[in-house]
Amino acid sequence: MRISEEGWRLLTFWVFTAGGYLILLFIVICLVFLFQTPRRVLLWIALPQITLVLLLWFAAGDETLFFPIGAGWILGLSLLLALLFSHRLRQPHHLWAGCHVVVLLLLLAHMGDILERHHRRDAYQAQQAAEETLLRKIDTTDDRAFLNHLMSQAMQPQNAGDWWTNRRIEHLAKRISPFDIADGTEKIWLVLAIDRLNRPAVGAFASWFIGDSVQAKQYRYQLLQNNPLLDLLNRVFNDSTADEQTFLQQQLLARDICTSLISVVPELLTDELYAQAVAFDNSNKPEPFSWQFEFDVFYHQENSGQ
């Protein structure tokens, strides 16, 4: 399971505090041979609390070092307080008892956090296993209705950007022709993906147009008969209902879709499409980049590769 930035910060804090605790514990062990207070603190504070951590770690069923490492700051704080104040008290047992109670409560809270992390990890692994099983079925099944149903679900706008959905699309696009009619519509899958600005789906379908096979040549010919990028840019450039942020985001997605298809079928970048881009650049509408520049760069890349 991937660790978030916040998780890395927390883990770094745990590692440093655990290291500090070990250094402090080493100092206490060295002082045991010289003074009575460190000896009593080691016997009545450090050893019982280390034992408690090991027992709770075992009870939590934690297969990682997250629990003992994360407990370092708790044990270190208790050990430091005991060292600083035990020699000032005739009867430090109340202090020690208080330290044990506080440590126990903090460790139980820490244990709950660890168990919650394990729950999320187990849920993630279960989802991962289920998805891998589904992907294997997608790669091997001949059930066209099943494949089309999954693609219809994956193409829903609410699923856009989901990592698992994008993986499904990558596998489904290898089994479903971009020119098949999409379920519940009169559009082919490729056009539906473009209309919904589904960048992963368009990128996956683009692989059908690569190569010198009869099918690839036929698909490129079919695509050029009705250039879908003309309709895409016309719709995106003239969307008067979107707010500025959405308008800019749609342009970014449209740019990536254009690049995905033009990179495999360069003939899609027609004079008409180029003129659309230039006209939009001159319209003073908000844009995150220059469309003309993007297409010019693509032309230069194509020419340099020849």
**Mean pLDDT figure:** 84
Q: Count of DSSP helices?
A: 14
Give the low-confidence spans. Answer: none
Total count of domains: 2
Going by helix content, strand content and strand pairing, the class is mainly alpha
What is the terminal-to-terminal distance?
43 Å
Keywords: Membrane, Transmembrane, Transmembrane helix
Features:
single chain; mainly alpha; 0% strand; elongated
Describe this structure in words.
- By secondary structure, this protein is mainly alpha-helical.
- The protein folds into 2 domains: 5-136; 178-305.
- It has 14 helices and no strands.
- The model has no long low-confidence stretch (mean pLDDT 84).
Tell me the layout of helices and strands.
Blueprint: H1 5-31, H2 36-60, H3 66-70, H4 72-85, H5 93-140, H6 144-154, H7 163-175, H8 189-195, H9 199-205, H10 214-225, H11 228-237, H12 244-262, H13 271-281, H14 291-305
Give a brief rundown of this model.
This protein is an all-alpha fold and 306 residues long. It has 14 helices and no strands.
